[in-house]
Amino acid sequence: MSVEVLDGATIRDFVEDVQAFNGLVDGRFVTLDVDHDGLLSYSEMMKELMSLRVLETHFGFDVVETSPDEIALIYHSLFLQFDHDRSGYVDKEEFRAETKKMMLAMANGLGVLARSDGLGGRQSP
Ligand SMILES: [Ca+2]
Q1: How many whole angstroms from 94 Cα to the centroid of ligand 1?
Q2: What positions does the domain EF-hand occupy (predicted)?
Q3: What are the pLDDT digits (tens) for 22-50?
Q4: Residue 31: how many CA atoms within 13 Å on its side-chain side?
Q5: How far is CA 28 from CA 9, 45, 60, 61, in A?
Q6: Do the Cβ atoms of 7 and 113 come closer than 8 Å?
Q7: pLDDT in tens, 80-108
Q8: CB of 40 within 8 A of CB of 29?
Q9: What is the CATH number of the domain that holds 20?
Q10: Please, which residues bridge with residue 40 across strands?
């Protein structure tokens, strides 16, 4: 999926399409679950968390001056957001729920961004 071509409304439509959304998220889950135990550990989630950071840089968050320690903290807090029951692992339900929440937040954020500064586009790295 290329997120770059999606706008807020497109993301919301996609997230509301439960079958398509769960299909995509479950596929992503299986890809991340390298040891196939049905759970995502912190190290397995790192790949996903790093892609979220990539999204943030696209949407205007400045990570250039963020230290490695701070980035580790950000990853850890992101992981805890997914790990609802604090088991140390993210199961498929948690992954679905949090991915949905993040995509909706992203959709809403794009809407706000487009209204507040009139740009709406992403910045080049
Ligand atoms: Ca696993």
Answers
A1: 14
A2: 70-105
A3: 999 999 999 999 999 999 999 999 888 77
A4: 9
A5: 22, 11, 25, 24
A6: no
A7: 989 999 999 999 999 999 999 888 887 88
A8: yes
A9: 1.10.238.10
A10: 90
